[in-house]
Write a structure and sequence with these properties.
Blueprint (H helix, E strand, L loop, with lengths): L8 H25 L5 H40 L1
Length: 79
């Protein structure tokens, strides 16, 4: 009967190294399958994101200003 023991440190390190290299090979294969956007599409999407961020920033700024005014009014009434 063969005795099955724990794997040695060297075999465990080799297993981890093999797993890491397999992971990076698979990542590389996935990147090859990605359909990257063209320059024109990239620019239009970037402009859309920046416009959306500006719109949300303005909205949150107005909400913040309104809430600050309400809180300041409440503080003046309470004082």
């Amino acid at each position: 009967m063969a005795q099955e023991g724990k794997p040695t440190l060297l075999t465990r390190i080799q297993g981890v190294g093999a797993s890491i290299s397999k992971f990076f090979r698979e990542v590389r294969a996935e990147f090859r399958r990605v359909q990257w956007p063209g320059r024109r599409e990239l620019i239009s999407l970037t402009v859309a994101v920046l416009a959306y961020v500006a719109l949300i920033t303005a909205f949150l700024g107005v909400v913040d200003l309104g809430l600050s005014s309400v809180i300041n009014a409440l503080i003046k009434v309470a004082a």
